[in-house]
Design a protein that fits this description.
11 strands, about 120 residues, mainly beta, globular, seven-stranded mixed sheet, four-stranded antiparallel sheet
Length: about 120
């Protein structure tokens, strides 16, 4: 079983940057896919895929964040990061980390990012 804890969310002005972290219990070297998702205010239960990173180093991004966000994983620290630059008000959301391992999905509890002047 994998436990995930996100951190790094806070209020930031438009154009600013944040780095989110997702700390995993145990080794992440066998986690096949890590993903960052977000749930915007008023979006109900729907979570939008933001970025994914596979065990073999492939990454994928939503069109809305391409060129601004970067996902990375540090196996030595059992941590996955989401570097967010040039933030926009529409990036405001609760950001969740997800791990996919051996056919199962694990979620963290999320961290709130607010982009506002």
């Amino acid at each position: 079983q994998v436990q995930l804890v996100e951190s790094g969310g806070e209020m930031v002005q438009p154009g600013g940057s944040l780095r989110l972290s997702c700390a995993a219990s145990g080794s992440i070297s066998t986690i096949f896919v890590f993903g960052w998702y977000r749930q915007a205010p008023g979006a109900g239960e729907q979570r939008e895929l933001v970025a994914t990173a596979t065990i073999d180093g492939n990454t994928n991004y939503a069109d809305s964040v391409k060129g601004r966000f970067t996902i990375s994983r540090d196996n030595a620290k059992n941590t996955v990061y989401l570097q967010m630059n040039s933030l926009k008000p529409e990036d405001t959301a609760v950001y969740y980390c997800k791990a996919h391992q051996y056919g199962l999905n694990y979620w963290g509890k999320g961290t709130l990012v607010t982009v506002s002047s």
